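C-alpha cells for Choline/ethanolamine transporter FLVCR1. Go.
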Amino acid sequence: MVEDGGGGEEEEEAAEGEMPATAAVPALQRCNGFLPGKEAAGGGERAAPAEAEAMLAAGGGRLETRLSRRRLAVLAVFSCYSLVNAFQWIQYSILSNVFAGFYGVSFTQIDWLSMVYMVAYVPLILPATWLLDARGLRLTALLGAGLNGLGAWLKCASLAPDRYPVTLAAQAVCAVAQVFILGLPSRIASVWFGPTEVSTACAVAVLGNQLGTAIGFLLPPVLVPNTPNDLDLMAHNISIMFYGTAIVSTLLFFLTGVVFEEKPKYPPSHSQAVLQTMPPEDYSYKQSIINLFRNIPFVLLLISYGIMTGAFYSVSTLLNQMIVTHYEGEEVNAGRIGLTLVVAGMVGSIICGLWLDYTKTYKQTTLIVYILSFIGLLVFTFTLDLGYLIVVFVTGGVLGFFMTGYLPLGFEFAVEITYPESEGTSSGLLNASAQIFGIVFTLVQGKLTTDYGPRAGNLFLCAWIFVGIILTALIKSDLRRHNVNSGIMNLDVKAVPVDSPVEPESTTLKIQSAL
C-alpha cells in the first residue's frame, strides 16, 4: 500500500529504518479488486473500487515498496533460535551409544528421540500453518522460541539413568516447537525481503537450522565423552550441555519478543504489496489447502522434496551407527563427519540462494542438485567401508553440499509455483512430507543397517532418490511470483469468499501475458 506524504513524512520513515527498494517497481497493469488467484464465481460483483485503488500510488499507478533495516535483525534472531532447535534434535543421535548406556535403553529408543521431531510435525502442521495465516508471524515465532526454551529446561530434569521418559517428553516439547519454526523461512523472506534478495534470505533462514545440526554433530561428543564406568561423570557432562542449551534458548525467546514484528511498514516487493491488499475476511484456509493439492506441479514437488529431505534426516540420525560400524571407537570423528556434511550443505544453501536470486532458474537448479545428491550418496555408500576416515570426510562433505543445499531450493520453488497461496502453508506441507518420509526412511534404513550393514540401508535411500529425480523432471516450471514482481504479466486480482456457496475453480493466479 502507498501513502502520499511530503518530505517530513519521508524523514520520519527513514528514522524508523525504512528505505526505498533498490529496483523500480513495475506498474500494476490490471486489478479488479478481488483476491489474487480467483475469479468471482458466477460473474459476481467486483470488490469496492477503493480496495483496488488503494494499491496504487497517487502519482503514477505504481505500488510503493520499501526495505526495512529491521529485516536483518528478524532474520538473525530467527536463524539463532532455529539453530538451537536443530541442535536439540540431533544431540542425542550423535551420542546414541552414550545415551543408550546412560539411560539403559536400546538404540531404537534413542532413535525415537530424533524421530519424535518427525512424528510430532505431521499431525500439528495444519493447525500451525492455520495459526500462522490467522494470527500472524509474530505469535508463531514467539510460540516456536518459547516452546524451544521450555523443552530445554525440561531436559535438565532428566539427568538420571531412570529418567528416559522425562527426556523423551522434553524432546517432544522441542518437537512441537519445531512445528512453529520450519515453516517460517519462506514467510520471513517474502514478507521482509525484496525480490532481488528473497531467495538468499530464505537460504540464510534455512542455514540457521543447518548450522544447529552442524553444532549438534560437533559439540556433544566433545562435551559428553563416553565414560561407561562413571555414570556420575557422564551425568555431570550431560548437565553442562542441557543447562547451557536452556540458558541460550531462554535469551533467544526474549530477543524474539523484542525484535519480531508482524510485517514492515511498507511491503518489500510488488507481489507482497498485492497480497497485503487482500481483505482478511476473504481468505479461506481450507480452500488454500485444496488449491495446493490441485496444483499438480506442487504435488510432484511435495513428494520429491519429502524424499530428499527425509533421506537427509535418516542419514543424520543414523550417521553415528554407520561410522561406528566400520570405525569402532570413532564417536568424535563421527560427529566431525556430520559437521563436515552440514557445513558443506550450508555453503551449498547460500550458493544456491544467490544463484536463484541471480538467474531465477528454479527447476533447472533443483533438478541438477537432485541428480548430484544421488551421485554423492552413491559415492559415500561405496567408500564408507574402505578403512580411510579422510575419504569419508570428503565424500560426506560432497554429499552434504548437495543434499543439504537442496532444502532452500524446495522452499523457494514451492513459493514460486503456488503464488499467491500462503508461503507458510506450502512450506508446512513440504516439511510434513519430509517428516513422513523421514520416519519411514529412518526405521527402514535403521533395520537394514542393523541386519545387513550400512551399505544396504544407503542403497535403499539411493533407490528412492532416483524416484525423486524423475518426479522433479516432471514438474512444470511456472514462476508466478517472479512474473508478478518483474511486471511481465498482467495480474487479475480475484476473490475467494470464505462463505461462497459456489465451488471455486482454483485459487492460483490467473495471469495473462502483457505482450
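Confidence is low (pLDDT under 50) at residues 1-16, 21-60, 490-515.
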